[in-house]
């Protein structure tokens, strides 16, 4: 601030001001004496009045008063008779001196007040400039923060836009100056303008979607988040606009892949399904789509070529017949099939087509196809190349990018699974259930993905800005999460006070590392204590922004309390089910064990009645006794089988290497009488070593072989046992020529107590196959059956490969 020579205090209130007053009066006196002939004696105060004003202006109020007194003395002494004397002749002189004294005093006071007012005005002007500078810095900081967000932001009033951020200008293609004063409806596609206008008129602040329109007339899907804010003393509309093109593209890709999965899972004829997928890819992913697979002998077989124009499909077939591909080429389908790596060209240069052409006619045919961009992705399954999918852009003018390649590779992976499933089914006729499981899992994952997208679009996210650890801004969603009002949160000394005590120290330590520039996790989970004391689990993301020397942290928070509660409930439910299963297993064991003794007594006495009184009573008594003996015998068999079933899960014998050839021989020895009586032929190929419980594996083979002998037709039973290695597991099958069963009963036969035949046809309790299923699953495998009524059945089961065999 400048030094005031005229202000009270400091230098101006001391000798300097008085010196000015004395010098000014002395100068005026001297000038009056020199110009005595010009200035009349009747007006000696003309110069002295100016002297008083000058002294007051330069020296302040006290200097002005001193100059007034000195001027009175000088005028009376030098210029009023009697001269050179301080005495006065008349009342008129006294009156003139008093009037001048009053005028000088008043002038000094007025000049002093004028100077004080001027000084205060300058100080206030400096303060206003400081406020304006701070306001400008705050506005610049807010604008830089707004320019960093991914959403376009627009401020509007009375339907006209007056401010936007950089994201908005990039999103719509307008310059900042062009956007100012623009009608907001110009930013909305014509088809959505009526609905958007209705929401604006209703002051609707709900989130919705509409089509935005760029400067060049193109449109894009947008998520609109309207709201209001105070801006320079007036209420304006603030609109957040998020371009959801990529999200829509992801949703479309998800639907496309879901439809492709459904097609691939609809049939085991992979030629038909891959042709359907090629048709599905046009025009969503390509103008052209072709599918090739590796056939027998390594030959390349083209399964499908698709285009919306049938004439062009015919042209492609003609081109393939007249100019077959070079199988040793490093580019195109042969190169992809050899390397297993995808190929992508965002732009196909004319030079490449000229080099690929054999002759002029070939070049002319290639030109008629109009190829512009292409991708070729291999069909890979467990490292093996099964074929390739070719996707080509032509007349649509679109170009492929890396994001398209990821979708194509996902499609190729699913197609490869379908091809492999179909081939395995042709070999072993067992991939139907596996394909259904894969289809169900794919459908579940797609449904889960769509549900997560929907939930993400609907959930409210809290938004907090920190300087250090102090909250400087918070949105309404975070207020709702925390239960505090906005002013209460901003008044808090630190955000950390909202966290539960047991997590506070760890979070402060992590946040401190972020503040010091050491980095740290962007996403983490914390527990917040609401105003009402309730604990809320939050998932937060932290971003750092720097404005010169100022560092701010933006925190986005999402309430995940319900998710935690669901996970806890799910865990509790799983523990309850596990405990319930253990109790049921214990009950079955105890019940079957404790029934042995009373049933043994009933069986013994009924047999004793049969031996002692048979033929001594009437025929009805003999029949009744026979029923009792038969029932007791069957119940004893049933209880023994139930006890065996319950013991499977209770045994804790450590797994050990087991030779299945020895297991097979033990099972044959146990079934020797049944084999001899039925005239059965039982053969087995080479059987491997596995890790497991030898006793239970003997029971497994004995039950399967016994079933094959029991459920025989008119011809003598023929039973065959074989084993094949499939990757990391052994697949076994037990094939017979018995009565067979219908496909709809294929799952039911493994359920305990489920019988497909009456007791009069075939004996049994319905537990044998349930025991087999439990033994196989306890050893980490699975079991199923394929059968044709009247032609026999084949029971399949798998067991893991031993550790040393894996190596």
Question: How would you sum up this structure, described in words?
Answer:
52% of the residues lie in helices and 20% in strands. The strands form five sheets. It has a five-stranded antiparallel beta sheet with strand order 2-1-5-4-3. The protein has a five-stranded antiparallel beta sheet with strand order 7-6-10-9-8, sandwiched between helices. Strands 12-11-15-14-13 form a five-stranded antiparallel beta sheet. Helix 2 runs parallel beside helix 4 and helix 14 (402-428) runs antiparallel to helix 15 (431-458). The chain is elongated, with a radius of gyration of 50 Å. It starts with 14 loop residues before the first helix and ends with a helix.
Structural class: alpha+beta
Q: Give the uncertain stretches in residue-range form.
A: 1-13, 448-459, 755-764
Task: Name the strands of the widest sheet in spatial order.
Answer: 2-1-5-4-3
Amount of beta strand: 15-25%
Summarize the structure.
The chain has 807 residues and is of the alpha+beta class. The longest helix has 58 residues, at 91-148.
Question: What would the keywords be for this entry?
Answer:
807 residues, alpha+beta, 5-stranded antiparallel β-sheet
């Amino acid at each position: 601030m400048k030094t005031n020579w005229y202000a009270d205090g400091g230098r101006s209130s001391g000798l300097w001001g008085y010196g000015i007053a004395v010098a000014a009066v002395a100068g005026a006196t001297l000038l009056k004496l020199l110009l005595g002939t010009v200035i009349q004696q009747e007006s000696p105060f003309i110069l002295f009045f100016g002297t008083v004003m000058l002294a007051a202006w330069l020296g302040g109020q006290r200097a002005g008063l001193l100059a007034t007194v000195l001027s009175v003395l000088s005028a009376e002494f030098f210029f009023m008779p009697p001269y050179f004397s301080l005495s006065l002749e008349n009342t008129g002189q006294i009156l003139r001196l008093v009037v001048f004294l009053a005028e000088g005093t008043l002038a000094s006071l007025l000049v002093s007040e004028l100077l004080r007012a001027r000084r205060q005005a300058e100080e206030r002007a400096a303060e206003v400039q400081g406020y304006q500078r701070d306001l400008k810095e705050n506005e610049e900081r807010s604008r830089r923060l707004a320019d960093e967000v991914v959403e376009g932001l627009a401020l509007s009033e009375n339907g006209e836009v007056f401010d936007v951020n950089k994201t908005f200008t990039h999103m719509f293609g307008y310059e900042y100056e062009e956007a100012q004063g623009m009608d907001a409806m110009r930013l909305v596609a014509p088809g959505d303008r009526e609905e958007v206008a209705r929401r604006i008129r209703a002051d609707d602040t709900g989130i919705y979607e509409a089509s935005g329109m760029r400067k060049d007339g193109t449109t894009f899907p947008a998520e609109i988040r309207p709201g209001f804010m105070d801006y320079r003393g007036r209420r304006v509309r603030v609109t957040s606009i998020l371009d959801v093109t990529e999200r829509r593209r992801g949703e479309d890709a998800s639907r496309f892949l879901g439809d492709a999965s459904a097609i691939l899972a609809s049939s085991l004829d992979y030629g038909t399904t891959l042709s359907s997928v090629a048709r599905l890819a046009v025009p969503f992913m390509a103008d052209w789509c072709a599918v090739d697979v590796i056939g027998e002998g390594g030959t390349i077989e083209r399964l499908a070529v698709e285009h919306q124009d049938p004439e062009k499909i015919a042209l492609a077939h003609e081109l393939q017949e007249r100019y077959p591909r070079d199988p040793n080429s490093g580019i195109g389908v042969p190169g992809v099939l050899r390397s297993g790596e995808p190929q992508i060209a965002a732009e196909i240069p004319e030079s490449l087509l000229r080099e690929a052409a054999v002759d002029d006619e070939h070049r002319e045919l290639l030109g008629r196809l109009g190829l512009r961009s292409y991708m070729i992705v291999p069909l890979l399954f467990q490292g093996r190349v099964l074929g390739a999918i070719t996707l080509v852009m032509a007349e649509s003018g679109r170009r492929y990018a890396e994001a398209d390649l990821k979708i194509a590779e996902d499609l190729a992976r699913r197609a490869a699974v379908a091809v492999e499933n179909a081939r395995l089914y042709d070999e072993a006729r067992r991939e139907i259930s596996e394909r259904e499981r894969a289809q169900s899992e794919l459908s579940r994952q797609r449904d889960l993905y769509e549900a997560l997208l929907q939930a993400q679009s609907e959930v409210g996210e809290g938004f907090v800005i920190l300087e250090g650890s102090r909250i400087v801004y918070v949105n309404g969603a975070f207020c709702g999460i925390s239960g505090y009002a906005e002013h209460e949160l901003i008044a808090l000394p630190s955000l950390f006070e909202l966290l539960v005590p047991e997590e506070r120290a760890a979070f402060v330590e992590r946040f401190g590392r972020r503040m010091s520039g050491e980095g740290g996790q962007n996403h983490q989970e914390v527990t917040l204590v609401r105003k009402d004391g309730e604990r809320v689990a939050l998932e937060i993301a932290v971003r750092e922004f720097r404005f010169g020397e100022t560092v701010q942290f933006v925190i986005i928070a999402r309430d995940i309390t319900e998710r935690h509660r669901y996970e806890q409930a799910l865990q509790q439910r799983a523990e309850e089910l596990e405990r319930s299963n253990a109790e049921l297993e214990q009950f079955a064991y105890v019940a079957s064990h404790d029934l042995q003794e009373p049933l043994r007594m009933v069986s013994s006495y009924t047999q004793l009645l049969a031996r002692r009184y048979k033929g001594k009573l009437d025929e009805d008594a003999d029949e009744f006794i026979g029923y009792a003996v038969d029932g007791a015998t069957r119940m004893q068999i049933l209880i023994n089988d139930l006890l065996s079933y319950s013991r499977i899960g209770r045994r804790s014998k450590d797994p050990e290497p087991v030779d299945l050839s020895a297991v097979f021989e033990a099972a044959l020895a146990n079934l020797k009488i049944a084999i001899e009586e039925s005239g059965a032929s039982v053969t087995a190929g080479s059987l491997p070593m596995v890790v497991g419980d030898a006793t239970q594996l003997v029971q497994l083979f004995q039950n399967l072989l016994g079933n094959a002998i029991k459920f025989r037709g008119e011809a003598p039973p023929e039973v065959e046992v074989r084993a094949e290695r499939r990757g990391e597991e052994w697949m076994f099958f037990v094939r017979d020529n018995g009565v067979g069963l219908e496909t709809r009963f294929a799952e039911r036969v493994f359920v305990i107590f489920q019988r497909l035949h009456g007791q009069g046809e075939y004996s049994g309790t319905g537990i044998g196959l349930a025991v087999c299923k439990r033994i196989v699953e306890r050893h980490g495998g699975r079991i199923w059956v394929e059968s044709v009524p009247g032609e026999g059945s084949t029971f399949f089961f798998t067991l893991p490969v031993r550790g040393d065999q894996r190596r």
